[in-house]
Design brief:
With about 260 residues, this protein is an alpha/beta fold. About 45% of the residues lie in helices and about 15% in strands. It has a nine-stranded parallel β-sheet with strand order 3-2-1-9-8-7-6-5-4. Helix 6 (about 165-175) crosses helix 7. The protein is globular and about 45 Å long. It starts with 6 loop residues before the first strand and ends with a helix.
Length: about 260
């Protein structure tokens, strides 16, 4: 059965902010008590000015690893096709050491066509990108076994996405954490499909931590009724955003308050 431990993650987006603003936000989040700090693996903003301020994900993660002492960290999510899989493994191992074993390897197949086009990667199709992810994850795990020094810990793999035929199959085979943005009704249906994939590959579904992006009501308020239903379905990792340039942490504070209330603290 899933652990009763509720974890709170915040994605500090790479866009529309100076790095000083990102650094300060990360420190505020660690001080507040969140469990995980994430960023995203894109080369351009996803909202607002398409050519606004933006920073690269992995170098940013290395800096966050050095800056922090408690939070786990990782990309939500790495794009598998932007870097050779063996290089990805080495980068993850290195940040795992910088952070003293706090790195989460969040990964996915990629979707933002501008990133691919401007940086010279073949965009392919949804299917071809997912096939590449499925082929590369075993290479990444194999490289972790060869590296000297080895990772500090068995680096957890987080896979984001909800595709029912391919993505959830990859989740069943490889993920320690599955992240989606599903409402409770959709989540319940997809969990049934994930259970079928786990049975097909001989995986205990309870080994996979369930993670979700948190939906907010009008005015930016966290919908605690939705959180409680997701918790009933097995979700234990709840993620929200802190977007530049302001990096508003109100949703993070609400999630932390909900967790305290849920625990009776």
């Amino acid at each position: 059965m899933p652990s009763d431990n509720i974890r709170i993650a915040v994605q500090v987006t790479n866009q529309h902010s100076t790095y000083a603003g990102i650094r300060e936000t990360v420190q505020r989040l660690e001080d507040l008590g969140v469990d995980i700090v994430l960023n995203w693996d894109h080369f351009f903003p996803l909202s607002g000015d398409p050519d606004g301020l933006h920073f690269e994900a992995w170098t940013m993660l290395a800096a966050i690893a050095e800056q922090t002492s408690r939070v786990e960290l990782g990309p939500l999510v790495n794009c598998n096709l932007y870097r050779n899989p063996d290089l990805q493994a080495d980068m993850a191992r290195t940040i795992d050491h910088i952070s003293d074993g706090r790195f989460i390897f969040g990964t996915g197949s990629g979707w933002f066509e501008r990133d691919f086009a401007e940086y010279g990667y073949e965009f392919g199709t949804v299917g071809s990108r997912l096939d590449a992810l499925a082929a590369d994850l075993p290479r990444i795990r194999a490289r972790w076994q060869k590296l000297n020094p080895a990772p500090v810990r068995r680096i957890p793999i987080l896979i984001g996405g909800g595709g029912e035929k391919k993505t959830l199959r990859i989740v069943a085979e490889h993920a320690d954490i599955w992240h989606s943005f599903s409402n409770p009704e959709t989540l319940e249906r997809k969990l049934g499909i994930l259970r079928e994939h786990c049975a097909a590959v001989g995986r205990d579904m309870d080994e996979i931590e369930l993670s979700t992006g948190v939906m907010t009501r009008t005015g930016g308020h966290v919908d605690t009724a939705v959180l409680e239903r997701q918790y009933e379905l097995g979700v234990r990792l709840f993620q929200t955003d802190a977007d530049g340039p302001d990096h508003d942490l109100e949703a993070a504070r609400q999630l932390l308050a909900w967790r305290r209330s849920f625990r009776g603290e």
